[in-house]
Structures are given as C-alpha cells and as structure tokens.
Design a protein that fits this description.
Structural class: mainly alpha
Oligomer: single chain
Mean pLDDT: 72
Largest sheet: none
Order of helices and strands: HHHHHHHH
Strand content: under 5%
Shape: flat
Number of domains: 2
Radius of gyration: 23 Å
Helix content: 55-70%
Length: about 170
C-alpha cells in the first residue's frame, strides 16, 4: 500500500511570494497573531512558537493559516485583481460628520475623526472618479458630488479644529 503524504502548505513562502505581510494592519489581527507572524517570518518554527506562547502547535498553525486566508480575501482572489472588493462601496459616515458640525458630538477627538473620515472618503472617491471616467461616464456626476461634499465637510471641520487650537493658545 502506498502511504499518502500529507500536503503541508508552506505559509512562509506563500506570504513572501504574495507579499501578504503588508496587509497585517488592514486585515485585523490579534496581538498574538502579529507577534507569531513576525517571528514565523524570521524563521522560527511553529513548534518553537508554540512553546514560547504555551499553546498547542495547531493553534500557531491556525493563526498563520487564518491570516493567509484573510489577507488573500482582502487582496482579492487572484493576484491580478489587487483591488479591495468593498472599495466601491465607500460612503461617508455622514452621521459622524453632521453631528460634529452641528456640535451634537463634542467628544475630545470627534472633530479629528470626522476630518480624517471626510478626507479618506474624498481621496477614495477621487481615485474612483479617474477610473470611472474611462469605464462608466454616467457615474462621474455622482462621484463628483461625493467628493465635493466630503471636501466641503473637511473644510468646515478643519476650521473648527483651527478654532479649537486658537482657543487653547
């Protein structure tokens, strides 16, 4: 009888070949997973990591395997499609921005969060606008509206932040 060889994926090589380490912050990993992955990529074996963290080898293997799966989902199914799937569904968090502008949300960092959010949306929509002009001209007006709204909101929030800074001086 022939013995069936167990196919063990070489995750270290997969992570290097596909460049998956750079997606660690975007995929959402636990702090242990982060340290496990960094150590694993330096050449430490799964068994040594299991002893270090006082867990089973399967747990370490599962941490690495789940990260590879999550990173591949984030990147897209094939290496040629390196666009994030939810990229086009980016919409501004209008409640946060409206509440900050109308002074309903007066938490300490709410204005900074709203400024970052509106700027992020404007940047994503501007990138999509360049792509849409070539592919879907009907979508251009909608994207221009999103960008204009986000930038106007950014401007208002930036003015609020500057006023807060003047008050502190």
């Amino acid at each position: 009888m022939e013995e069936k060889k167990k196919i063990v994926p070489r995750y270290r090589q997969i992570i290097e070949d596909e460049g998956l380490m750079k997606y660690m912050s975007k995929v959402g990993v636990t702090s242990r997973q982060k340290y496990v992955l960094r150590s694993y990529m330096k050449g430490i074996s799964e068994g040594q990591l299991a002893k270090k963290y006082n867990v089973a080898v399967n747990t370490i293997h599962e941490d690495i395997r789940s990260y590879v799966g999550s990173a591949r989902k984030y990147v897209g199914d094939s290496p040629a499609l390196r666009k994030i799937k939810w990229y086009e569904s980016v919409k501004p968090d209008e409640d946060l921005m409206k509440n900050v502008i109308s002074n309903k949300n007066t938490k300490r960092y709410a204005t900074y969060e709203a400024l970052i959010e509106s700027t992020r949306v404007a940047a994503k929509k501007a990138d999509m606008l360049l792509d849409a002009k070539r592919r879907n001209p009907k979508k251009v007006k909608e994207l221009e509206g999103y960008i204009r709204t986000a930038l106007e909101t950014s401007e208002k929030i930036l003015e609020m932040v500057e006023e807060e800074d003047k008050d502190l001086e």
